[in-house]
Protein backbone atom coordinates (compact mmCIF):
# COMPACT_ATOMS: atom_id res chain seq x y z
CA UNK A 1 0.00 0.00 0.00
CA UNK A 2 1.38 3.41 -0.93
CA UNK A 3 2.10 5.71 1.99
CA UNK A 4 1.43 9.43 1.54
CA UNK A 5 4.54 11.49 2.00
CA UNK A 6 4.40 14.17 4.66
CA UNK A 7 4.92 17.45 2.75
CA UNK A 8 5.05 19.62 5.84
CA UNK A 9 8.29 21.49 6.59
CA UNK A 10 10.87 19.52 8.62
CA UNK A 11 10.41 21.75 11.68
CA UNK A 12 6.67 21.06 11.70
CA UNK A 13 7.26 17.32 11.33
CA UNK A 14 9.73 17.27 14.24
CA UNK A 15 7.25 19.22 16.39
CA UNK A 16 4.53 16.74 15.54
CA UNK A 17 6.77 13.85 16.56
CA UNK A 18 7.46 15.50 19.90
CA UNK A 19 3.71 15.79 20.37
CA UNK A 20 3.35 12.03 20.02
CA UNK A 21 2.17 11.73 16.39
CA UNK A 22 3.28 8.92 14.05
CA UNK A 23 6.46 9.30 12.00
CA UNK A 24 5.18 8.77 8.46
CA UNK A 25 8.66 8.26 6.95
CA UNK A 26 9.96 6.06 9.76
CA UNK A 27 8.40 2.80 8.53
CA UNK A 28 9.65 3.36 5.00
CA UNK A 29 13.18 4.13 6.21
CA UNK A 30 13.22 1.11 8.50
CA UNK A 31 12.05 -1.13 5.67
CA UNK A 32 14.73 0.19 3.31
CA UNK A 33 17.40 -0.25 5.99
CA UNK A 34 16.32 -3.82 6.67
CA UNK A 35 16.37 -4.60 2.94
CA UNK A 36 19.91 -3.25 2.64
CA UNK A 37 20.98 -5.31 5.65
CA UNK A 38 19.43 -8.43 4.11
CA UNK A 39 21.15 -7.81 0.77
CA UNK A 40 24.48 -7.36 2.53
CA UNK A 41 24.09 -10.69 4.30
CA UNK A 42 23.02 -12.39 1.05
CA UNK A 43 25.98 -10.93 -0.84
CA UNK A 44 28.43 -12.12 1.83
CA UNK A 45 26.83 -15.58 1.79
CA UNK A 46 27.10 -15.77 -2.01
CA UNK A 47 30.74 -14.72 -1.94
CA UNK A 48 31.64 -17.28 0.71
CA UNK A 49 29.85 -19.95 -1.31
CA UNK A 50 31.87 -19.00 -4.41
CA UNK A 51 35.08 -19.21 -2.37
CA UNK A 52 34.15 -22.70 -1.17
CA UNK A 53 33.28 -23.73 -4.72
CA UNK A 54 36.62 -22.48 -6.08
CA UNK A 55 38.78 -23.54 -3.13
CA UNK A 56 39.66 -26.95 -4.53
CA UNK A 57 40.47 -25.55 -7.95
CA UNK A 58 42.68 -22.85 -6.41
CA UNK A 59 44.72 -25.43 -4.48
CA UNK A 60 45.00 -27.62 -7.58
CA UNK A 61 46.21 -24.67 -9.68
CA UNK A 62 48.79 -23.64 -7.07
CA UNK A 63 50.14 -27.17 -6.75
CA UNK A 64 50.27 -27.68 -10.54
CA UNK A 65 52.05 -24.35 -11.12
CA UNK A 66 54.68 -25.13 -8.48
CA UNK A 67 55.37 -28.65 -9.79
CA UNK A 68 55.55 -27.47 -13.41
CA UNK A 69 58.02 -24.75 -12.46
CA UNK A 70 60.28 -27.17 -10.56
CA UNK A 71 60.34 -29.77 -13.33
CA UNK A 72 61.03 -27.21 -16.06
CA UNK A 73 63.72 -25.42 -14.07
CA UNK A 74 65.44 -28.20 -12.12
CA UNK A 75 64.95 -31.23 -14.36
CA UNK A 76 64.91 -29.73 -17.86
CA UNK A 77 67.32 -26.92 -17.00
CA UNK A 78 65.19 -24.11 -18.42
CA UNK A 79 66.59 -20.84 -17.01
CA UNK A 80 63.26 -19.05 -17.54
CA UNK A 81 60.51 -21.55 -16.72
CA UNK A 82 57.63 -19.14 -17.29
CA UNK A 83 55.46 -20.99 -19.76
CA UNK A 84 55.18 -24.30 -17.88
CA UNK A 85 53.30 -22.87 -14.87
CA UNK A 86 51.24 -20.63 -17.18
CA UNK A 87 50.19 -23.68 -19.22
CA UNK A 88 49.35 -25.64 -16.06
CA UNK A 89 47.14 -22.88 -14.71
CA UNK A 90 45.57 -22.32 -18.15
CA UNK A 91 44.63 -25.98 -18.40
CA UNK A 92 43.06 -26.03 -14.93
CA UNK A 93 41.26 -22.75 -15.58
CA UNK A 94 39.58 -24.22 -18.66
CA UNK A 95 35.94 -25.20 -18.46
CA UNK A 96 35.69 -28.10 -16.07
CA UNK A 97 35.08 -31.31 -17.96
CA UNK A 98 37.15 -30.17 -20.96
CA UNK A 99 40.69 -30.39 -19.60
CA UNK A 100 41.84 -33.16 -21.94
CA UNK A 101 40.62 -31.13 -24.88
CA UNK A 102 42.09 -27.94 -23.42
CA UNK A 103 45.53 -29.55 -23.11
CA UNK A 104 45.48 -30.70 -26.73
CA UNK A 105 44.33 -27.27 -27.89
CA UNK A 106 47.02 -25.60 -25.79
CA UNK A 107 49.79 -27.65 -27.38
CA UNK A 108 48.35 -27.25 -30.90
CA UNK A 109 48.07 -23.49 -30.48
CA UNK A 110 51.64 -23.29 -29.19
CA UNK A 111 52.93 -25.27 -32.16
CA UNK A 112 51.16 -23.05 -34.68
CA UNK A 113 52.28 -19.86 -32.94
CA UNK A 114 55.90 -20.99 -32.72
CA UNK A 115 56.01 -22.04 -36.37
CA UNK A 116 54.45 -18.84 -37.73
CA UNK A 117 56.37 -16.54 -35.40
CA UNK A 118 59.72 -18.16 -36.03
CA UNK A 119 59.22 -18.25 -39.82
CA UNK A 120 58.15 -14.62 -40.16
CA UNK A 121 60.88 -13.39 -37.81
CA UNK A 122 63.44 -15.18 -40.01
CA UNK A 123 62.04 -13.48 -43.12
CA UNK A 124 61.10 -10.03 -41.82
CA UNK A 125 62.91 -9.40 -38.55
CA UNK A 126 61.24 -7.88 -35.49
CA UNK A 127 59.36 -4.68 -34.88
CA UNK A 128 55.91 -3.25 -34.37
CA UNK A 129 54.56 -3.89 -37.86
CA UNK A 130 56.12 -7.36 -37.92
CA UNK A 131 54.36 -8.15 -34.63
CA UNK A 132 51.02 -7.02 -36.04
CA UNK A 133 51.58 -9.10 -39.19
CA UNK A 134 52.54 -12.21 -37.23
CA UNK A 135 49.42 -12.04 -35.05
CA UNK A 136 47.17 -11.42 -38.07
CA UNK A 137 48.64 -14.34 -40.02
CA UNK A 138 48.44 -16.68 -37.00
CA UNK A 139 44.76 -15.90 -36.44
CA UNK A 140 43.78 -16.15 -40.11
CA UNK A 141 45.61 -19.44 -40.66
CA UNK A 142 44.14 -21.12 -37.60
CA UNK A 143 40.63 -19.95 -38.52
CA UNK A 144 41.13 -21.18 -42.09
CA UNK A 145 42.20 -24.57 -40.70
CA UNK A 146 38.92 -24.75 -38.76
CA UNK A 147 40.54 -24.53 -35.33
CA UNK A 148 38.59 -23.75 -32.18
CA UNK A 149 38.57 -20.37 -30.50
CA UNK A 150 40.97 -21.65 -27.83
CA UNK A 151 43.57 -22.67 -30.45
CA UNK A 152 43.20 -19.33 -32.25
CA UNK A 153 43.81 -17.38 -29.04
CA UNK A 154 46.72 -19.60 -28.00
CA UNK A 155 48.38 -19.35 -31.43
CA UNK A 156 48.10 -15.55 -31.43
CA UNK A 157 49.41 -15.26 -27.85
CA UNK A 158 52.32 -17.56 -28.60
CA UNK A 159 53.21 -15.60 -31.74
CA UNK A 160 53.30 -12.40 -29.67
CA UNK A 161 55.63 -13.97 -27.11
CA UNK A 162 57.93 -15.38 -29.80
CA UNK A 163 58.23 -12.02 -31.56
CA UNK A 164 58.72 -9.95 -28.41
CA UNK A 165 61.04 -12.32 -26.51
CA UNK A 166 63.06 -13.98 -29.26
CA UNK A 167 65.49 -11.09 -29.77
CA UNK A 168 66.66 -11.22 -26.15
CA UNK A 169 66.26 -14.93 -25.40
CA UNK A 170 68.04 -17.59 -27.42
CA UNK A 171 66.39 -20.91 -28.31
CA UNK A 172 63.03 -19.84 -26.91
CA UNK A 173 60.92 -21.78 -29.36
CA UNK A 174 61.65 -25.34 -28.24
CA UNK A 175 61.49 -24.64 -24.47
CA UNK A 176 58.19 -22.86 -25.04
CA UNK A 177 56.70 -25.85 -26.78
CA UNK A 178 58.09 -28.32 -24.25
CA UNK A 179 56.93 -26.15 -21.35
CA UNK A 180 53.39 -26.03 -22.77
CA UNK A 181 53.31 -29.80 -23.01
CA UNK A 182 54.78 -30.13 -19.52
CA UNK A 183 52.35 -27.69 -17.93
CA UNK A 184 49.28 -29.35 -19.44
CA UNK A 185 50.51 -32.79 -18.40
CA UNK A 186 51.20 -31.69 -14.83
CA UNK A 187 47.73 -30.14 -14.60
CA UNK A 188 46.12 -33.43 -15.62
CA UNK A 189 48.36 -35.33 -13.19
CA UNK A 190 47.30 -33.12 -10.29
CA UNK A 191 43.62 -33.40 -11.28
CA UNK A 192 43.64 -37.16 -11.72
CA UNK A 193 46.18 -38.51 -9.22
CA UNK A 194 47.73 -36.09 -6.77
CA UNK A 195 44.74 -34.02 -5.68
CA UNK A 196 41.47 -35.28 -7.24
CA UNK A 197 38.39 -33.51 -5.91
CA UNK A 198 35.44 -35.42 -4.49
CA UNK A 199 33.02 -35.31 -7.45
CA UNK A 200 29.88 -35.68 -5.35
CA UNK A 201 30.92 -32.86 -3.04
CA UNK A 202 31.60 -30.62 -6.03
CA UNK A 203 28.17 -31.37 -7.51
CA UNK A 204 26.34 -30.95 -4.21
CA UNK A 205 27.85 -27.51 -3.72
CA UNK A 206 27.00 -26.53 -7.29
CA UNK A 207 23.44 -27.88 -7.13
CA UNK A 208 22.57 -26.08 -3.91
CA UNK A 209 22.15 -22.56 -5.37
CA UNK A 210 20.00 -23.76 -8.30
CA UNK A 211 17.69 -25.90 -6.18
CA UNK A 212 17.49 -23.33 -3.37
CA UNK A 213 16.56 -20.66 -5.92
CA UNK A 214 13.77 -22.84 -7.33
CA UNK A 215 12.37 -23.79 -3.92
CA UNK A 216 12.50 -20.24 -2.55
CA UNK A 217 10.65 -18.69 -5.49
CA UNK A 218 7.98 -21.38 -5.32
CA UNK A 219 7.42 -20.57 -1.64
CA UNK A 220 7.28 -16.82 -2.40
CA UNK A 221 4.69 -17.51 -5.10
CA UNK A 222 2.56 -19.59 -2.75
CA UNK A 223 2.63 -16.84 -0.12
CA UNK A 224 1.83 -14.26 -2.79
CA UNK A 225 -1.21 -16.20 -3.94
CA UNK A 226 -2.53 -16.46 -0.39
CA UNK A 227 -2.20 -12.72 0.17
CA UNK A 228 -2.91 -11.80 -3.48
CA UNK A 229 0.42 -9.97 -3.53
CA UNK A 230 1.05 -9.37 -7.21
CA UNK A 231 4.29 -7.43 -6.64
CA UNK A 232 5.78 -10.21 -4.53
CA UNK A 233 5.01 -12.84 -7.17
CA UNK A 234 6.46 -10.61 -9.88
CA UNK A 235 9.70 -10.30 -7.90
CA UNK A 236 9.85 -14.09 -7.65
CA UNK A 237 9.42 -14.32 -11.42
CA UNK A 238 12.18 -11.77 -12.06
CA UNK A 239 14.55 -13.61 -9.74
CA UNK A 240 13.84 -17.00 -11.29
CA UNK A 241 14.46 -15.63 -14.78
CA UNK A 242 18.01 -14.74 -13.73
CA UNK A 243 18.92 -18.39 -13.17
CA UNK A 244 21.46 -18.86 -15.95
CA UNK A 245 24.43 -18.62 -13.61
CA UNK A 246 23.07 -21.26 -11.23
CA UNK A 247 22.20 -23.68 -14.04
CA UNK A 248 25.52 -23.13 -15.82
CA UNK A 249 27.39 -23.80 -12.57
CA UNK A 250 25.46 -27.03 -12.02
CA UNK A 251 25.98 -28.22 -15.59
CA UNK A 252 29.70 -27.45 -15.45
CA UNK A 253 30.07 -29.19 -12.10
CA UNK A 254 28.41 -32.34 -13.47
CA UNK A 255 30.79 -32.39 -16.44
CA UNK A 256 33.75 -31.84 -14.14
CA UNK A 257 32.63 -34.60 -11.79
CA UNK A 258 32.27 -37.04 -14.67
CA UNK A 259 35.75 -36.08 -15.88
CA UNK A 260 37.24 -36.61 -12.42
CA UNK A 261 35.51 -39.97 -12.03
CA UNK A 262 36.90 -41.00 -15.42
CA UNK A 263 40.48 -39.78 -14.96
CA UNK A 264 41.12 -40.46 -11.29
CA UNK A 265 41.53 -44.08 -10.14
CA UNK A 266 40.75 -42.93 -6.60
CA UNK A 267 37.30 -41.76 -7.76
CA UNK A 268 36.32 -44.62 -10.05
CA UNK A 269 34.01 -46.06 -7.38
CA UNK A 270 31.94 -42.85 -7.56
CA UNK A 271 30.86 -43.35 -11.17
CA UNK A 272 27.55 -45.04 -10.40
CA UNK A 273 26.69 -42.38 -7.80
CA UNK A 274 27.06 -39.65 -10.41
CA UNK A 275 24.36 -41.13 -12.64
CA UNK A 276 21.53 -39.51 -10.63
CA UNK A 277 22.98 -36.03 -11.00
CA UNK A 278 23.98 -36.45 -14.64
CA UNK A 279 20.45 -37.56 -15.55
CA UNK A 280 18.81 -34.94 -13.31
CA UNK A 281 20.38 -31.88 -14.96
CA UNK A 282 17.95 -31.66 -17.90
CA UNK A 283 14.71 -32.24 -15.91
CA UNK A 284 15.84 -29.69 -13.31
CA UNK A 285 16.33 -27.19 -16.14
CA UNK A 286 12.83 -28.01 -17.42
CA UNK A 287 11.41 -27.63 -13.92
CA UNK A 288 12.95 -24.15 -13.77
CA UNK A 289 11.33 -23.15 -17.06
CA UNK A 290 7.94 -24.63 -16.20
CA UNK A 291 8.02 -22.95 -12.81
CA UNK A 292 8.61 -19.69 -14.64
CA UNK A 293 5.37 -20.23 -16.56
CA UNK A 294 3.60 -21.15 -13.31
CA UNK A 295 4.71 -17.93 -11.63
CA UNK A 296 3.94 -15.77 -14.66
CA UNK A 297 0.41 -17.13 -14.79
CA UNK A 298 0.06 -16.56 -11.06
CA UNK A 299 0.72 -12.87 -11.69
CA UNK A 300 -2.01 -12.83 -14.35
CA UNK A 301 -4.36 -14.70 -12.04
CA UNK A 302 -4.06 -11.94 -9.44
CA UNK A 303 -4.40 -9.20 -12.05
CA UNK A 304 -7.61 -10.77 -13.43
CA UNK A 305 -9.00 -11.26 -9.91
CA UNK A 306 -9.56 -14.97 -10.46
CA UNK A 307 -10.35 -17.21 -7.50
CA UNK A 308 -7.47 -18.80 -5.58
CA UNK A 309 -8.69 -22.00 -3.91
CA UNK A 310 -6.79 -22.79 -0.71
CA UNK A 311 -5.24 -26.01 -2.08
CA UNK A 312 -3.51 -24.11 -4.90
CA UNK A 313 -0.83 -22.33 -2.81
CA UNK A 314 -0.56 -25.48 -0.68
CA UNK A 315 0.30 -27.43 -3.83
CA UNK A 316 3.02 -24.93 -4.73
CA UNK A 317 4.47 -25.18 -1.21
CA UNK A 318 4.62 -28.96 -1.63
CA UNK A 319 6.55 -28.47 -4.87
CA UNK A 320 9.06 -26.28 -3.03
CA UNK A 321 9.47 -28.89 -0.31
CA UNK A 322 9.93 -31.58 -2.95
CA UNK A 323 12.85 -29.62 -4.41
CA UNK A 324 14.46 -29.30 -0.97
CA UNK A 325 14.01 -33.00 -0.26
CA UNK A 326 15.50 -33.85 -3.64
CA UNK A 327 18.56 -31.75 -2.81
CA UNK A 328 18.94 -33.38 0.60
CA UNK A 329 18.46 -36.96 -0.60
CA UNK A 330 20.87 -36.52 -3.50
CA UNK A 331 23.49 -35.06 -1.15
CA UNK A 332 23.04 -37.97 1.25
CA UNK A 333 23.20 -40.55 -1.54
CA UNK A 334 19.71 -41.79 -0.70
CA UNK A 335 16.90 -42.88 -2.97
CA UNK A 336 14.73 -39.73 -3.30
CA UNK A 337 11.50 -41.37 -2.15
CA UNK A 338 10.43 -38.48 0.09
CA UNK A 339 10.88 -36.00 -2.75
CA UNK A 340 8.71 -38.17 -5.02
CA UNK A 341 5.98 -38.46 -2.40
CA UNK A 342 5.92 -34.69 -1.89
CA UNK A 343 5.70 -34.07 -5.65
CA UNK A 344 2.66 -36.33 -5.88
CA UNK A 345 1.12 -34.61 -2.87
CA UNK A 346 1.50 -31.31 -4.76
CA UNK A 347 -0.39 -32.82 -7.70
CA UNK A 348 -3.13 -34.10 -5.39
CA UNK A 349 -3.59 -30.62 -3.90
CA UNK A 350 -3.62 -29.14 -7.40
CA UNK A 351 -6.42 -31.56 -8.26
CA UNK A 352 -8.43 -30.36 -5.26
CA UNK A 353 -7.89 -26.75 -6.35
CA UNK A 354 -9.09 -27.58 -9.87
CA UNK A 355 -12.18 -29.31 -8.49
CA UNK A 356 -12.98 -26.30 -6.29
CA UNK A 357 -13.14 -24.09 -9.36
CA UNK A 358 -10.48 -21.98 -11.07
CA UNK A 359 -10.34 -19.44 -13.88
CA UNK A 360 -8.38 -19.64 -17.09
CA UNK A 361 -5.02 -18.61 -15.61
CA UNK A 362 -5.74 -20.75 -12.58
CA UNK A 363 -6.15 -23.80 -14.80
CA UNK A 364 -2.76 -23.02 -16.38
CA UNK A 365 -1.20 -22.79 -12.91
CA UNK A 366 -2.67 -26.20 -12.08
CA UNK A 367 -1.31 -27.63 -15.33
CA UNK A 368 2.15 -26.23 -14.59
CA UNK A 369 2.09 -27.71 -11.10
CA UNK A 370 1.49 -31.09 -12.73
CA UNK A 371 4.22 -30.55 -15.30
CA UNK A 372 6.78 -29.31 -12.77
CA UNK A 373 5.99 -32.26 -10.50
CA UNK A 374 6.55 -34.56 -13.47
CA UNK A 375 9.94 -32.92 -14.09
CA UNK A 376 10.92 -33.46 -10.46
CA UNK A 377 9.88 -37.11 -10.61
CA UNK A 378 12.05 -37.61 -13.69
CA UNK A 379 14.91 -35.81 -11.93
CA UNK A 380 14.51 -38.28 -9.07
CA UNK A 381 15.19 -41.19 -11.44
CA UNK A 382 11.72 -42.20 -12.65
CA UNK A 383 11.12 -42.75 -16.37
CA UNK A 384 8.97 -40.10 -18.07
CA UNK A 385 6.14 -42.50 -18.94
CA UNK A 386 5.95 -43.80 -15.38
CA UNK A 387 6.08 -40.25 -14.02
CA UNK A 388 3.13 -39.23 -16.22
CA UNK A 389 1.12 -42.23 -15.02
CA UNK A 390 1.80 -41.33 -11.38
CA UNK A 391 0.79 -37.71 -12.03
CA UNK A 392 -2.54 -38.74 -13.56
CA UNK A 393 -3.24 -41.10 -10.69
CA UNK A 394 -2.43 -38.48 -8.04
CA UNK A 395 -4.53 -35.83 -9.76
CA UNK A 396 -7.58 -38.12 -9.79
CA UNK A 397 -11.09 -37.60 -11.13
CA UNK A 398 -12.26 -34.22 -9.88
CA UNK A 399 -15.77 -33.35 -8.87
CA UNK A 400 -17.76 -30.53 -10.43
CA UNK A 401 -17.08 -27.14 -8.75
CA UNK A 402 -19.36 -26.42 -5.82
CA UNK A 403 -22.61 -24.65 -6.71
CA UNK A 404 -22.71 -25.71 -10.35
CA UNK A 405 -26.00 -27.48 -11.18
CA UNK A 406 -25.96 -31.02 -12.52
CA UNK A 407 -28.09 -31.57 -15.60
CA UNK A 408 -30.03 -34.85 -15.67
CA UNK A 409 -29.13 -35.49 -19.30
CA UNK A 410 -25.53 -34.38 -19.09
CA UNK A 411 -23.36 -34.80 -22.19
CA UNK A 412 -20.09 -36.74 -21.87
CA UNK A 413 -17.72 -35.00 -19.48
CA UNK A 414 -14.66 -33.38 -21.02
CA UNK A 415 -11.24 -34.33 -19.61
CA UNK A 416 -11.07 -33.03 -16.05
CA UNK A 417 -7.32 -32.66 -15.89
CA UNK A 418 -5.15 -30.21 -17.78
CA UNK A 419 -2.74 -31.97 -20.10
CA UNK A 420 0.72 -32.74 -18.85
CA UNK A 421 3.43 -30.63 -20.49
Automatic annotation (TrEMBL):
Entry-linked InterPro entries: Memb_transporter_dom (IPR049453)
Renumbered to this chain, region (Disordered) spans 394-421
Where does this protein have coiled-coil stretches?
230-260
Q: How does it sit in the membrane?
A: Multi-pass membrane protein
Ordered alphabetically, the record's keywords are: Coiled coil, Membrane, Transmembrane, Transmembrane helix
Task: Domain (Integral membrane bound transporter): give its ranges.
Answer: 67-190
**Compartments it resides in:** Membrane
Membrane-spanning intervals of the chain: 51-71, 83-100, 107-125, 137-165, 177-197
Q: What name goes with this protein?
A: Uncharacterized membrane protein YgaE (UPF0421/DUF939 family)
Q: Which organism is it from?
A: Micromonospora violae
Amino acid sequence: MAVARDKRPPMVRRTALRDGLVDIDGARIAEATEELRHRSRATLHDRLHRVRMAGGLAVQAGLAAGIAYLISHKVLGNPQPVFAPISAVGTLAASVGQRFRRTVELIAGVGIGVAIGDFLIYLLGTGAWQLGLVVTVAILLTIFAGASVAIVIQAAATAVLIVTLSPSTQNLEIPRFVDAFLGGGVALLVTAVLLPLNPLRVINRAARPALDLLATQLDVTADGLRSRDRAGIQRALDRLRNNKEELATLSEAIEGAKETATLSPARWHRRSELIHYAEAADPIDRAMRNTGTLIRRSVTLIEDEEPVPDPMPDAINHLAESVRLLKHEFAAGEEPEKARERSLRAVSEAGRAYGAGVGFSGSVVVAQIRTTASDLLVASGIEQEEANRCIRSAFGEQERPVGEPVEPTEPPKPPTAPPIG
